[in-house]
Amino acid sequence: MTADPPPTPPFRDPGLPVAKRVDDLLARLTLEEKIGFLHQFAPAVERLGVAAFRTGQEALHGVAWMGPATVFPQAVGLGATWNPELVRRVGAAVSREARAMRARDEHVGLNVWSPTVNLLRHPLWGRNEEGYSEDPKLTSAIATAYTRGLRGDHPVHWRTAPVLKHWLAHNNETDRDTASSSVRPRVLHEYDLRAFRETVEAGAVAGVMPAYNLVNGRPNHVSPYLREQLRTWTEEELLVCSDAGAPSNLVDSEHYFDTHEEATAAALRAGVDSFTDHGTDGSKITARVRAAYERGLVSEADIDTAVRRQLSVRFRLGEFDDHRDPGAFDTPEHRALAQEAAEQAVVLLRNDGVLPLRPESRIAVVGLLADECKLDWYSGTLIHRSTPLEGLRERFGADRVQFAEGVDRIRLRTSAGVFLYVPEGAAAEKVRGAEGALDPALLAGRTDLPPLTTDPVGTELALVDWGEGVLTLRAPDGRCLSVAEDGYVRASADQPGGWVVQETFRLEPHGRGHLLRHLGTGRHVSVAADGVKVAGTDPEIFETVVVERGEEAVARVAAGADVVLVVAGNDPHINGRETEDRTTLFLPAHQNRLLRAARAAQPRTVLALVSAYPYAVEPGSLAALLWTAHGGQAAGTALARVLAGDVSPAGRLPQTWYASDADLPDLLDYDVIGGCQTYLYFEGTPLYPFGHGLSYASFSYAGLTAHVTEDAVRVSFTVTNTGRRTAAEVAQLYSRAVEPSVPRPRRELLAHRRVTLAPGERTRIAFDVPLSAFAFWDVAHGRWHLDPGPYDLMAGGSSEDIRLRTTVTLAGEPVAPRAVRQRGLDAADFDEQSGTAIVDRTRTTGDAVTPAGDRSGELLYRACDFGPGVTGVTVTVAGRGTVEVSLDGKPPLATLTADSPSGPYAYTELTADFTAAGVHDVRLGLRGALRLAHVGFSG
Fold this sequence. Notes:
- With 939 residues, this protein is an alpha+beta fold.
- The chain is 20% helix and 28% strand.
- The chain is built from 18 helices and 44 strands.
- The strands form 12 sheets. Strands 12, 15, 16, 19, 20, 21, 22 and 23 form an 8-stranded antiparallel sheet that branches. Strands 36, 37, 40, 41, 42, 43 and 44 form a 7-stranded antiparallel sheet that branches.
- A hairpin with a 2-residue loop joins strand 21 (523-528) and strand 22.
- The chain starts with 17 loop residues before the first helix and ends with a strand.
């Protein structure tokens, strides 16, 4: 007689609603098991047959860190395609590869930490490569497409579960874990939240990751916006995963809490569900949660809430349904898609007719990136590789394409008169990252090769100056000089890379020679009997013997060419990357030398910028100028096909290209409105505007119509290809409030569409623009508001290339004056400010305002209605200083002095006589080290 099998537990019954299944499994877990689930690496629960689970798999433009995978263009390059449907297909390919890779390696995760939807507000941000655009509408369109591709099209099960990064207002690597972004309410709602909101509302997002920084004085990992904003946008359970090490930062670097137990509890209550800290070791986080629970800082219900959100994602991934999605890996379709994406990402900025290149052209390809296919921190390992040089030789023939890299070739002579020598290595070639790693920061340098020595002749090294004196030195076999943990210098790296780059150096003047500082360790290079190494003592003094300047080689090959292609740009691991912001928009001097040499030898010089961010260049003397982000595995083939005219360029700039550093705001100035930032508010003349990009064809626009309905504006116009070749055009629709009640954008993207048209072909493009797209955040009443009156609608090829224009009149209500007699003024709800910063009113919620810099600031609140009159004013303040209250720019009517040394959150109310009636502008002067939370009026 056989015993009946045990009944299937409800959590494994696919016929039940997911919420009931989650509740059933949650009820079966012990408190200790649930606490274990709060770390990134959740352990298995074998008694229930529940497997271990890891949150987090990088997949920004391909599966990253897990070894070979298809590498697509960088995210900013995907943004430059302005093509959501293409990006959806890229996301789908990435998710298929994640499934296929997981089938053979359980370390590959399905909870992917992508995409990045931080807006590219400032072009010096080190992580510019990770975002899509400076515009929230374009960013959300591209991000929504990518998440839909990552999610997959199964009606129930998600192929991967995407998590958006990095919540919120995060555009600086400088002091990134201690700096606070001061974000006024209008910027918060109209700019920073908008990209997240529209992507979440589209329904293919599993969660978000808070950023390292603080917003308005409060760390993002305890942000009330997670509850007040994010979780109100969808009925789905969203999983909030901390950034790596950020939970510990709350105490260790930010000093926001006194103990880790308090910090962990606060983050959990704020809405962080998975703690990424201390690598794979969950013991510290679980101990903190356990101690917080025992102290009553969190309840079991708080823990249940977080675990429920994680389980919801796991159920959606099909973990408990034996769902099998085999995925697909490195397929012909994926390779073709990588090339298509790279082609669509190329932006033609200038062309005097030299492009496309004639088939019989003799081409000189020069520059530091001419024979490179660069990867960034969030790339997979290349399976296939195409450089610009390889692509052009394949397209035009090797005999028609000459090459000069343009490196400076040098020898380094020691004080003893001998030269640095690179011995031959016997070890097999290895590529960094080929083996995969959960954290590539932990990949060690190679020690299996002999260190450098010296000899009478030495080795000729290729020197590249990447700007600001940051150098790489390369041996003749292509290996970069690098330093491993043992301190010896070896020619061992295929490329610069790693969390701390070990392949960069700086030559520092010293007497008649130079010291060679290794930047990764901060130590100087010394020569010892057992080899060349870095050390804290006895640095070697080197003489740099130049064998050939890079510009000499460039001039030599350029002189015999019909056209010169200079390929310039950045290495994604140097001078602008995660942890390091750029300091300038300008090209490094080394690359400018090469560009000048090429132009002097051949006026028909084309500059192709391959970079993760914009540059300020002088385009006037160039025959043509192109930009593309680092384009992944097919970058060279794609660029060659665009140059040859096999593909007409149709990429468009996803952010403004400024002409000079002088056009930029301070990196930490997040007030895009007051600081006149991005194409929305910039009042200067850009080098190239947002949305710009040329074609080998020409297009005409005609027949713009606009019809206002009850809840939308229906806009349509016709685009015609008036050129002689099939090409794509990106038609863009912008708006402008003609009579705004508050400062509004000069123009703002409403919609766009990328269309491919044959010669003579035309198409009618129509958009239904919701009326909400014309609204702004009314700080006086804490809500969205639509001004009544005229709005310009503008269609064209960029934000400045406007071809058609019409005006519609929208109905609305004028903004009512502030009812300050009843509600007073919340300090952060100002209309204008100078010299202030928004800070946290308490550690959990609310904003206050404090003077910044020299401890003197001004706040302006327009149209304050005092009704029949008030006789008193009350300010809620903490700290020491004075608050001056005046009307309409006149001298202060009241001055209130605070003297509270008890801490930043020890608020007190101060009152003074104050007489006003009717509607006035209120100006507050803040002096000293104080925080102002609220101003009330009475009488």
